[in-house]
Amino acid sequence: MKKRILVTGGAGFIGSHLCERLLNEGNEVICLDNFFTGSKENIVHLLKNPYFEVIRHDITTPYYLETDQIYNLACPASPIHYQYDPIQTIKASILGSINVLGIAKKTGARVLQASTSEVYGDPQIHPQVESYWGNVNPIGIRSCYDEGKRCAETLFMDYHRCNNVDIRIIRIFNTYGPNMHPQDGRVVSNFIVQALQGKDLTIYGNGLQTRSFQYVSDLVEGMIRMMENENFIGPVNLGNPGEFTMLELAEKVIRLTGSKSKLVFMPLPADDPTQRKPDISLAKEKLKWEPTIALEDGLKETIEYFKRIL
User: 209 with 275: CB under 8 angstroms?
Assistant: First the structure.
């Protein structure tokens, strides 16, 4: 049956891929975005679909429509973007959550919160499991994002407990792929853009800090499985447990681009986590989900995308 689905932040990197997948599955999709970090270029090819609608709106302001499902992705997600206006960032998480939960409460829609691995902060356990409460600095330069997402999870759980709102919570780990913003400051896009432009690759700290990278199509599959699951509200980690140092990632990008770039080292930013790796046992058990795209294969697709837009 065709569903009417609202995707907040639908013109962003992840949101645009989600909109396309939902349309391909025969749904009616409403993309709501203020285009602060989202881009019309990400969704322009979807506009010819009569079941796709775009609304320019900031989710920190209330909005009402009839819908069956809501995917709440509206929030700047890269340090450069969320530190540009930290007050607006935390408003996007908190007021945005209140507003989409209000829609869900009125309409009976199921609503999925796109939370983040940043709720674990600079973790003291490795890998990170959903039962870990995190190690987050509440007054640091990343707090607007980290604490905003933590508070959003609180709001979702309280609306569920107090008002029986049908919620789902996912925690997204590092994700990459086509439609990434070339100036988003994330390590994959940074390395690829620098390599393609023949610039030195910037390594922060000693380069031994680790991240786990999932390709965007794997994430979208996990998101949809979570939304459609009838007996599990989460939170659940969605990420690739393959762990790589920044040096390993840089070497892969240089090799795959054929670049002659060198590595330059800069001081590590404040509160930057030293390790990040998801435990996805819960996702495997509840969603029968795990990533299928190897890092090298995903990087090749992402490099081809950046070659086209640079």
Answer: yes
Known catalytic residues are 145
Extract the tokens encoding 251. 């070497």
H-type alpha helices, the chain: 13-24, 79-84, 86-107, 143-163, 187-196, 216-228, 246-257, 281-287, 295-309
DSSP string, 157-205: HHHHHHH---EEEEEE--EE-TT--TTS--HHHHHHHHHHTTPPEEEET
Classify residue 19 by burial, with Cβ atoms within 10 Å: 0-12, 13-18, 19+.
Answer: buried
pLDDT in tens, 58-100: 999 999 999 999 999 999 887 777 888 899 999 999 999 999 9
Euclidean distance between CA atoms 111 and 109, whole angstroms: 6
CA–CA separation, 188 and 228 (whole Å): 30
